[in-house]
Amino acid sequence: AADGSVAQRIDEPFEPPTAATPTGQYTVQEGNSLWVIARKAYGAGQQYTVIYGANKGHIRDPNLIYPGQVITLPKS
């Protein structure tokens, strides 16, 4: 509030990242990058190179992926 007091509190449960590494196909969504996908899938953005290496036939430039593009997520 304007006087500095707390007007509302929001409680959200904490969900730690899962340790499981998914494999299979992933359809790129708007706003995705290989870094973001690797962070979600493997827990580390630096693992984008694993995704890029497995999809070199489909991805010419790792900085350019497109919504709707289907990529493979290998075991890291």
What structural keywords apply?
single chain; 76 residues; alpha+beta; two-stranded antiparallel sheet
Describe the structure.
By secondary structure, the protein is an alpha+beta fold. It has 2 helices and 2 strands; from the N terminus they run E-H-H-E. It has helices at 34-42, 48-54; strands at residues 24-27, 70-73. Helix 1 (34-42) packs across helix 2 (48-54). The radius of gyration is 18 Å and the shape is elongated. The termini are far apart. The mean pLDDT is 84.
In short:
The chain has 76 residues and is an alpha+beta fold. The chain is built from 2 helices and 2 strands; from the N terminus they run βααβ.
- What would the average pLDDT be, to the nearest integer? 84
Could you give the order of strands across the largest sheet?
1-2
The largest β sheet comes out as: 2 strands, antiparallel
Helix content range: 10-25%
Number of helices, counting only DSSP H or I runs of 4 residues or more: 2
* Relative strand content: 5-15%
N-to-C SSE string, H for helix and E for strand: EHHE
Structural class: alpha+beta
The gyration radius over C-alpha positions equals: 18 Å
Principal-axes geometry comes out as elongated
Indicate the low-confidence ranges by residue numbers: none
What is the tally of beta strands?
2
Roughly how many Å apart are the termini?
48 Å
What is the element layout, followed by pairings?
Elements (H helix, E strand, L loop, with lengths): L23 E4 L6 H9 L5 H7 L15 E4 L3
Antiparallel strand pairs: 1-2
Helix pairs in contact: 1-2
